[in-house]
Design brief:
This protein is mainly α. It has 8 helices and no strands.
Amino acid sequence: MSCILLSHPLIVFLKLVTDPKLSDIESLTREQILVVIGVTAVILLIIAKVWQKVWSVILLDVQLTFNAILGGLGVAGGIIVTSSIIYHLWPAYRQSADIYFKLIIRPLMWLDLIWLGLLPGLSEELLFRGVMLPALGLNLLAVILSSVIFGMLHSSGMQQWPYVIWATIVGFVLGYSALLTGNLAIPIIAHIMTNLVSSYLWKISKSV
């Protein structure tokens, strides 16, 4: 089982509002999840555009070529396979990932998963790889720093540290692919496909 790359501080906030004791992980509804995904994407896009304007950041190019599509699919495939292996071999990560999946994916319908792939994939990549990476220097240190921040935003508590570690590693892979190619399309495609495939695989496994 792979991971869903969805920064969700608003989901945590909504969870606290609807259930302050965090006692029932299934308390979030489909509508709440969809609203939070949409609102989070808008907020990240606004932050990215404001940061770009204030710091005069030059965005990475988005070149949707055949090679970029293949590259993005290749990166996504590597992330999904590696994450599936880790899911089966590392109990702490499996427990952390299952909590994340149950919180975000279980309430959603099958078609909703398209939005789960598109909105975070576009908004998070624009912010973390499109703006943050060049703003921090477009070098290996920038990739590391942006990856750590990316991983931290995938935490919903101390018990989620295995998921945060993996999200940080995935963030590094996505960032390095952008650094290596100078093409933002590759991490965008990889992020979208990772979310789509991971969420569909999890739902399929729970419906069997």
